[in-house]
Amino acid sequence: MTTESMQEHWEQLMTVAMLGTDRRNPPTPPGPLADLVADTARSSASERMLAQVAACTAVRRAGVVPGPVLDEIAMPDTDARPTCIPAAIERWHYITESWPILEDEWTLTLISNGWRIAPELLPAMLLRHRSDAIRRTRVMVGAGDAGRWLVGHLPDLEPRHSAVSVTPEALHSLPKLPIAPELAEMLDWPGAKVGTMLAQSIQTGSLGHSHKPMLVNLVARIHQEALTNLVDVLTGIDPMATGHGLATVLVDLASTRQRMLSELMR
Amino acid sequence: MSAAWSVEQVASVAPSASAMSAAQPLATPSRWSQLGVAGTSVWGSFQGSGTEPYDTIADHSRLGFSCSCLSRQTPCKHALALLLLWVRGQVADTVTPSHVEAWLQRRRAASSRAMAAADNEAGEPSGGGSAPGKPDATDGSSATVDGAVIVDEQPPPAPPPDRDATRNDRVVRMHAGLAELDRWLDDRIRTGLADSSLARYATWDQLAARLVDAQAGSLANRVRRLAGLVGASTNWHDDVLAELGILHLLAQAGRRIEVLPSSLADAVATTVGWQVRQADVIAGVPDTDEWMIAGRSDVREDRIEVRRHWLRGVNSGRWALALSFAAYQQSLDTSLPVGSSLHADLHRYPGPALRALVGTRYHDPAIHPNVAAQFAASACSIADGCAEVGVLLASEPWLDRVPVTVHARLARTGRAWALADHTGSMPILAPDTRAFDAGVAMLLAVSEGKPVDLTVEWTPHGVIPLSIHLPDRTVDVGPRANTTFVSAA
């Protein structure tokens, strides 16, 4: 019994199944299938039909065969840049979940340090920035030809709006974050000094949870060299002190940023 | 209010897994009124199919249940559903109503009597058993668990049935359920697939509910999945007919289980829904190997998220399936990271089943440098992959997911995607028409159109990519549970 004759018989069974055996009798099973379903106990047309459907399904599934050979799809141009390391991939996932404020810096550092976006991040990044022309353009730059190629195959990844021109300045610079003037001057201070000042202010209560957005912006933009000292000082805050929770949050942000930048170093 | 239990604790007091399954859909606040919790008691009125609601009370500290339904099981599904609502924090603290207070007082009185009787009995010479007329901890109206007295208002106070009688009762119920399933299939075939009743979910749901009652829970799940096929694709009639055929096969095999070869009988029993205790599985001979964790897929079945981990023995080359389950806000198993390997004992379920429990772990799952080479060595061509799937399906035609690792590239057939090589192709299962196909997107991005080693799940409707094995890492691309429903890192 060939695959073709089995398919032909299945189509006959389908026709009867659509109409029901009250209206049409089941077909005569071909070849070995006739022996398989032969059973004098099966008196009604519906019982004989069910036996045939069961046997035919079992045979078709066990006899699963490959479909036709298909043409290869065109590949994207090769990209000489190395893909970012697995730790950077994990960091991107963490950042987008916990500290999205760092994502712009992650992408820009990756591009400027000559990395290529890991392919497994591409679908998520393109989906995430379908409506944001600047960030999407950065992703396409970081992805190289693979980004264009992927979008060409998957319309779901196309941008939501028609092409918007993005200036090189917008593309390559971090967005400005609002930081209060008295905090903004700390951007150029050494890490230990910033840390000590913040720790004192947090412990005395002059900086509290209401200042968290500003402090987050400050830590997200402070010099990379200052991060280590900042983490050390803030980690030393007494767990029982007021503001320890806020300090813990800032430590997590600072250490995440520190690790992110170190993973994207070349 | 004392600390709420976990769902597992609720399951542990259920008289059977099917009772727990039956309770899950009832644990919906909209079906309850006068819900409340105070101290150790939880109560509420469940609006069932009758005109009068069932008044249900549970004492979660001293384990006791009361329900005005007619169920002979204790706790009944309503009591279990009430506990589930409480576990989920959906029962508010309030003042104990009079009927609950009266029930608690009766329990306290019965408990005092039982303790007094136990004290008296302790003073008597051993070997005498309980004296006539005295309350007995095993008389069905009162029992002890971990020192706590359980008082059960549920009639009847019959002695607990022995194991064989329980088993025989289950077999009878299962046979009756399978006979009913076959009659139902017969009706569908007589009236035809064009019959409009097939499009009504109730048509399938009622059958599934009866199969649950008949202890054929797995078949009930299968029927519910089948309901989802109706109208799901242009050739859904084809898919539904094939699945009706498989149900008929299982119904027939299940009714003749006594005359089947033991291995096949075990496979049929497990597929129909015969519960096997985990302790019995663990007690079996272990299959010890270095297990590559080849792929993972999550799928929602009714109100439970099911996670499948596919493991492959480095030495035996045999596949095994480790399942984990999570209800709302529970966690799925995250201890088997895809792409790692694990030296462990697996204990297989009876028969030729792929399903196994992970027993002793000789080390934590780790990503060894040679894992990639092992995945590459196990990958085969599309034609060989079809043959591998066919061998498993020849012995168990009802399997609806079979793992296989192939070396293939992505290709297109019109708008659909397929895996292909020089020996042929396998269609990739298309997701819901509105859904973004994250698996294909990842496969496309990672492979860039080049051939890669990947593990897929074969299904009758197409393969599902689970993982891509690259020389330096494995990328998990399998369907992932919705994290708003369960925790599924």
What are the main properties of this structure?
heterodimer, A: 266 residues, mainly alpha, 58% helix, elongated, B: 489 residues, alpha+beta, 6-stranded antiparallel sheet, 5-stranded antiparallel sheet, 13 helices, 17 strands
Gyration radius of chain A, rounded? 32 Å
The strand count of chain A comes to 0
How would you classify the helix and strand content of chain A by structural class?
mainly alpha
SSE order of chain A, one letter for each helix or strand: HHHHHHHHHHHHHH
Tell me which protein chains meet in the greatest interface and how many residues each side has. Answer: A-B, 52 and 58 residues
Give the fraction of residues assigned to helices of chain A. 55-70%
Oligomer: heterodimer
Beta fraction of chain A:
under 5%
Helix coverage percent of chain B: 25-40%
Domain count of chain B: the total is 3
Number of strands of chain B: 17
Explain how this protein is built.
The complex is a heterodimer of chains A (266) and B (489). Chain A has 14 helices and no strands. Chain A is mainly α. Chain A is elongated and about 90 Å long. With 489 residues, chain B is of the alpha+beta class. Chain B has 13 helices and 17 strands. In chain B, 39% of the residues are buried. The chains are: A mainly alpha (266), B alpha+beta (489). Chains A and B meet through helix 1, helix 3, helix 6 and helix 8 of A and helix 5, helix 8, helix 12, strand 12 and strand 13 of B.
Sequence-ordered SSE layout with sheet pairings:
The complex is a heterodimer of chains A (about 270) and B (about 500).
Chain A: H1 3-19, H2 31-37, H3 45-62, H4 86-98, H5 103-112, H6 122-128, H7 133-143, H8 145-153, H9 168-172, H10 181-184, H11 191-204, H12 212-221, H13 226-235, H14 244-263
Chain B: H1 7-13, H2 17-23, E1 32-38, E2 41-46, E3 54-59, E4 64-67, H3 77-87, H4 98-122, E5 142-145, E6 148-151, H5 163-191, H6 201-213, H7 217-229, H8 236-255, H9 262-272, H10 278-282, E7 287-301, E8 304-313, E9 319-326, E10 341-348, E11 356-361, H11 371-378, H12 382-395, E12 402-413, E13 416-421, E14 424-427, H13 438-447, E15 452-459, E16 462-469, E17 474-476
Antiparallel strand pairs in B: 1-2, 2-3, 3-4, 5-6, 7-8, 7-10, 8-9, 10-11, 12-13, 12-15, 13-14, 15-16, 16-17
Helix pairs in contact in B: 1-3, 2-3, 5-6, 5-8, 6-7, 7-8, 8-9
